[in-house]
Design goal:
137 residues, alpha+beta, five-stranded antiparallel β-sheet, 34% strand
Amino acid sequence: MKKITRLLFPIIAVVLGIIAIVSGVHKMATKDLYDSTVTATIVDVQEEWDNTGEDSELVYHVYIDYEVDGVKYEHVESPESDSTMQVGDTIELLYQSKDPSKISGKNITGNSVIMIVIGVVIAIGGIIAEIKAFIRR
């Protein structure tokens, strides 16, 4: 069982790393679709304790209302959230002019690069761990 675990966890790390890389590259490739800005109003902030990791952490779910070309989008979860956001505050977001229901934060490129870098680090770590596990065998 211990041998299987030593082989399985690195494979999972590589797969998760590849998923993060592909997701970051996809987001980077589609960033040009987000060609318009909108000012959204925060209408709800919900706090939730996330107990999935080793430590519990407080996660914020921010909901916004915004309007594009007379169409109202209400109580939509914001792509950006943090503990400083309060009901009534406004934030600038990007949206796709072809489909205004698709919104993004203003820093698409930066977030994509971070995702790609994290994916590369996780994948390389998984590959190194897998090689070490095979050498020990």
